[in-house]
From TrEMBL:
<dbReference type="InterPro" id="IPR000587">
    <property type="entry name" value="Creatinase_N"/>
</dbReference>
<feature type="domain" description="Peptidase M24">
    <location>
        <begin position="153"/>
        <end position="380"/>
    </location>
</feature>
<keyword id="KW-0031">Aminopeptidase</keyword>
<dbReference type="InterPro" id="IPR029149">
    <property type="entry name" value="Creatin/AminoP/Spt16_N"/>
</dbReference>
<dbReference type="Pfam" id="PF00557">
    <property type="entry name" value="Peptidase_M24"/>
</dbReference>
<dbReference type="GO" id="GO:0004177">
    <property type="term" value="F:aminopeptidase activity"/>
</dbReference>
<protein>
    <submittedName>
        <fullName>Xaa-Pro aminopeptidase</fullName>
    </submittedName>
</protein>
<dbReference type="InterPro" id="IPR000994">
    <property type="entry name" value="Pept_M24"/>
</dbReference>
<dbReference type="InterPro" id="IPR036005">
    <property type="entry name" value="Creatinase/aminopeptidase-like"/>
</dbReference>
<feature type="domain" description="Creatinase N-terminal">
    <location>
        <begin position="13"/>
        <end position="115"/>
    </location>
</feature>
<keyword id="KW-0378">Hydrolase</keyword>
<dbReference type="Pfam" id="PF01321">
    <property type="entry name" value="Creatinase_N"/>
</dbReference>
<keyword id="KW-0645">Protease</keyword>
<dbReference type="InterPro" id="IPR050659">
    <property type="entry name" value="Peptidase_M24B"/>
</dbReference>
C-alpha cells in the first residue's frame, strides 16, 4: 500500500524537466500552474489571485509565493530559495518573481504561461515584459503516463471510493434526501480512511474529508452534469452516482447507474445498452491502440442500437492529479494530435502503458440518464481494472423494504 509519493519520484521529475531545459536556449523553466508546481515539488496550494511562480535552473530551484504561504513552503526539501510578496496587488508578485530570476542569473525562460492565470480577478503584467520567454508544456505532457508509484496512489483512491460507494448504497432508501445520504456516505468513508491510514495519510483537504461519494437523482440524471435536486428519494428513482478519494493529490473515478427498487423494462433496456457499450470500450483498450478508435467503436454500437442521438459525450479521459486530464477518448483525438494548434505527434494518438482512463460512455433519454464509469490503467501487456464496485444490474438495485 502506498499513500505518499517518495522523494525519488520528485527527483526523477526534476531530472526530466532539466533534461528538457538543456535542449533549449532558456536559462530556467518557469511554472505558474498550481498542479505543475505540485507535480514537480510536492507543494500544493490553492490557485487564487495571488500568483505562485516556480523557477528551475540546471542547479537551483526557487519559488515566489505570497506571504501567507511562506511557512508552508519553507520546509519543502526541494526548494533552495523562497521569495515572497505581501499580497496582491500591493506586493507586485510578478516583479518579485522577476527579482528572483535576476538573482538566479536568468535572462530567458521556458514557461508554461506568459504570466499568472487570471483567476479570482487577478490582472498582472506578462512575464515576457521582463525576460525573454518561450512556451513549454513539459509537465502537462509528463503527467499522461503514470509511474508505478502514481498507480499505487490511484489504486488506493479506488479502494476508498469503493467503500464510499458501498455506504451510498447502504443508506439509500425511499424518503431519504440525496444530499444527506451523500454527506453521510462521504463522512463515514472519510473517517474510516483517516482512522485506518493514521500518520500515513497526507493532508490534502481543508475542513472536509478525503472521500466523496454522492449522486444525482430522477430527471437530473438525464443531464450528464446534473445537480442534486431538493427532493426525497422515491421508489422507481434512477440514480447516477460518483465516488472518489484524494490520496496525496491523486484521484480515481467510480460511477454507477442504480435503481431504487426494481427498474421497469425501459430502464433495464437502456441500462443493458450502456453496460454493453462500456464493455465494448474496455475490450478495445491496450498499449498501441489508437485512442480515437475506442470512441468510434462505441459510437458504432450506439448507432446499431438506435440510440446514437442519446449520447452526449465521448467515452472517457485520463485521470490522475486532475479529475480530467488529456488524452481524451474522443473520435477527434487523432486529428487533434495532427493539428497545428497542438505540439502533439503521432505517438500521442495511441494508448501507452501508464495511461489511466475513465471509461464512461453514457446515454441520456428525455427522462433519465445511464452511465457507469470505471478507472482502468493501460499496462505493458494489457489493462488493469482499478475500480471494482459491481457493474451488473442486480448489484445496482437498491431493494425496497
Amino acid at each position: 500500500m502506498s499513500t505518499q509519493l517518495p522523494v525519488e519520484e520528485f527527483e526523477h521529475r526534476l531530472e526530466a524537466v532539466r533534461d528538457r531545459l538543456a535542449e533549449t536556449d532558456a536559462d530556467a523553466g518557469v511554472w505558474f500552474g498550481a498542479t505543475s508546481i505540485e507535480y514537480l515539488t510536492g507543494f500544493d496550494h490553492i490557485q487564487t489571485e495571488r500568483p505562485v511562480v516556480l523557477a528551475v535552473t540546471d542547479e537551483r530551484i526557487a519559488i515566489t509565493v505570497p506571504r501567507l504561504e511562506v511557512e508552508r513552503i519553507e520546509s519543502n526539501p526541494r526548494i533552495d530559495a523562497v521569495y515572497h510578496y505581501r499580497d496582491y496587488p500591493g506586493g507586485e508578485p510578478i516583479e518579485t518573481a522577476v527579482s528572483m530570476l535576476e538573482e538566479l542569473g536568468v535572462e530567458s525562460v521556458a514557461a508554461d504561461a506568459d504570466g499568472a492565470p487570471g483567476v479570482m480577478g487577478y490582472q498582472g503584467p506578462a512575464l515576457s515584459e521582463f525576460v525573454d520567454l518561450e512556451s513549454q508544456g513539459w509537465v502537462a505532457r509528463m503527467r499522461w503516463e503514470k509511474s508505478e508509484v502514481e498507480l499505487d496512489l490511484i489504486r488506493e483512491s479506488a479502494k476508498w471510493a469503493n467503500l464510499g460507494h458501498r455506504y451510498l448504497a447502504e443508506y439509500t432508501e425511499p424518503g431519504a434526501h440525496p444530499a444527506t445520504v451523500s454527506q453521510r456516505a462521504s463522512m463515514e468513508a472519510s473517517r474510516a480512511m483517516l482512522d485506518t491510514l493514521g500518520d500515513q495519510y497526507v493532508a490534502r483537504t481543508r475542513g472536509d474529508g478525503p472521500v466523496h461519494a454522492g449522486y444525482i437523482t430522477g430527471e437530473q440524471t438525464r443531464l450528464p452534469h446534473g445537480h442534486t435536486a431538493n427532493r426525497r428519494l422515491e421508489a422507481g428513482d434512477v440514480l447516477v452516482t460518483g465516488a472518489s478519494a484524494n490520496v496525496d493529490g491523486y484521484y480515481s473515478e467510480l460511477e454507477r447507474t442504480m435503481f431504487v427498487g426494481d427498474p421497469d423494462d425501459e430502464q433495464v433496456h437502456y441500462f443493458e445498452i450502456m453496460l454493453e457499450a462500456q464493455e465494448i470500450a474496455i475490450d478495445e483498450l491496450g498499449p498501441g491502440v489508437p485512442i480515437a478508435a475506442v470512441d468510434r467503436v462505441v459510437e458504432e454500437y450506439f448507432e446499431e442500437q438506435g440510440v446514437a442521438d442519446l449520447a452526449q459525450h465521448h467515452v472517457g479521459h485520463n485521470i490522475g492529479m486532475g479529475g480530467h486530464e488529456p488524452p481524451y477518448i474522443d473520435e477527434g483525438w487523432a486529428d487533434h494530435c495532427e493539428s497545428e494548434h497542438t505540439n502533439y505527434d503521432e505517438a500521442d494518438a495511441v494508448m501507452q502503458p501508464g495511461h489511466v482512463w475513465t471509461i464512461e460512455p453514457g446515454i441520456y433519454t428525455d427522462t433519465y440518464g445511464y452511465r457507469h464509469s470505471d478507472t482502468i490503467a493501460v499496462t505493458e501487456d494489457g489493462i488493469e481494472w482499478l475500480t471494482y464496485y459491481p457493474r451488473d444490474l442486480e448489484s445496482n438495485i437498491v431493494p425496497l423494504e
